[in-house]
Specification:
Elements (H helix, E strand, L loop, with lengths): L2 H9 L18 H13 L7 H9 L11 H13 L8 H13 L15 H12 L6 H9 L15 H14 L10 H7 L18 H13 L7 H9 L8 E2 L7 E2 H15 L3
Helix pairs in contact: 2-4, 2-12, 4-6, 5-6, 6-8, 8-10, 10-12, 11-12
Length: 275
């Protein structure tokens, strides 16, 4: 893996306002800024123009404390915390916004291209946990547990089940639930593991993308388990890197993006601890 190439890839895509965009010339956005800062943090590289980055992120919150979405709220609050700062508006407004996301989560329509129907719930719970404002955790636990399938996985076939299983486990951990008591979930994740390296989104799938391996490795980590084929998975993930230093979503072809690069770096750091 070309570490210097990754750092250059990220730094070259910082805009004048301090934010980032994986597509050069495009406006800065919360998601890419979050991934950029997280990638640099994992690589132990100090971000440039941090004051500008903080100001950009703070500008994404409305006067009444709202954000455009729970994802934007998560990206902004998490990245500001990483940079040693916080939102300009009172934390109470961020908390109320996140609580509202949880209240309407069960009945809300999920964007058809979303990777998991549980992702937004996890993000809202993570925000509330960060600010020590999580309430009614028992009710949220019940909602999540109702999404477990007979084979041990979580979520519907309309979405990535390896992603939904990861987000369900992470959410339950935040809520204080003992995930070791869940039936068959570890066995199901193991069935998604590919002997030649990587993971698939469900045992019935044959093709794999970067996010499948990310969710598989991270789901095992939540359960204090490790991949069976770490060396082959390391080599597999390294094959996603493009000449510009970034990583693509598909093993075959595609442009680099910050999310795939974040997932690759995160997986590699997790796997390297096993050697």
């Amino acid at each position: 893996m070309d570490i210097d190439g990754i750092v250059d890839y990220i730094r070259e895509r910082q805009n004048e306002d301090g934010g980032y965009s994986f597509c050069r010339g495009a406006e800065s956005n919360a998601e890419d800024t979050y991934y950029a800062i997280e990638i640099l943090r994992m690589l132990e590289v100090k971000p440039r123009n941090m004051d500008k980055t903080v100001a950009f992120l703070q500008s994404l919150q409305y006067q009444d404390g709202r954000f455009d979405s729970v994802k934007v709220a998560y990206y902004v609050t998490t990245t500001l915390t990483c940079l040693g700062s916080k939102p300009l508006k009172p934390i109470s407004k961020v908390v109320r916004f996140s609580e509202g996301m949880i209240e309407k989560w069960e009945s809300a329509d999920v964007y058809i291209e979303a990777v998991s129907e549980i992702e937004n719930l996890y993000l809202a719970v993570e925000i509330l946990k960060t600010f020590n404002s999580l309430k009614n955790s028992g009710d949220v636990q019940k909602h999540v547990l109702r999404l477990q399938n007979n084979d041990g996985s979580f979520g519907s076939e309309r979405f990535s089940r390896i992603a939904s299983t990861f987000y369900a486990l992470k959410t339950l951990i935040l809520l204080g639930y003992n995930v070791k008591t869940l039936c068959d979930v570890l066995r199901w994740i193991r069935r998604c593991e590919v002997p030649s390296g990587g993971f698939v989104s469900s045992p019935e799938e044959s093709s794999t993308h970067m996010e499948d391996t990310y969710f598989g490795v991270k789901a095992l980590k939540v359960l204090n388990e490790s991949p069976r084929y770490p060396q082959k998975t390391l080599k597999f993930v390294a094959g996603f890197q493009n000449p510009n230093g970034g990583f693509r979503r598909s093993i075959f072809l595609g442009i680099s993006d910050f999310e795939s690069t974040y997932q690759a770096v995160s997986v590699l750091k997790t796997l390297l601890t096993l050697f």
